[in-house]
Amino acid sequence: MQTLARTDLPVAVDNVEPQQYLTFMLSGEMFAIGIVVIKEIIEYGYVTPVPRMPDFIRGVINLRGAVVPVIDLSARFGRGPGMIGRRTCIVIIETGLGDDVQTLGVMVDSVSEVLEISASDIEPPPSFGTHIRTDFIAGMGKVRGKFVIILDVNHVLSTEEMADLVQSGL
Questions:
Q1: How far, in Å, CA of 110 to CA of 3, rounded?
Q2: Residue 135 and residue 23: Cα distance in Å, rounded?
Q3: Each residue of 32-47: pLDDT tens digit?
Q4: Which of 1, 15, 27, 39 sits CB 3.0–4.6 Å from 92 for a disulfide?
């Protein structure tokens, strides 16, 4: 019997609905994260340092009784530690699936706005020429004639990769 269609191949689905993204500034560049993973935005306050952590882990905060690690995105991207200013804030993000959900905070220079970007306005990540690892980029969103770097949160905040870095002493 002849097979007419293979069901084991991924099916491409065009998302016609615009997706919402939180945009923020980091070292003079605009980035975006899908709003579905963002739980809240808080003012940058006291972060308790944790010894023997990589440079990109600023420390932890107490968020309503929960210990939440704070990631310095500037340092995570290899740009050195971010500067704390009066608009610096922490974006609280939940990543993972099912029972393996992690709550993390990411330190950004300032939060800009929530934008809707349609799938037709998102280009694939460039293969070279960016200031950050290409696997950290989900796409390049076109907004008002400029590009916004849309981050792939699962890669940027990969707890497995960060745990490997901690164990290797980096």
A1: 54
A2: 19
A3: 999 999 999 999 999 9
A4: 39
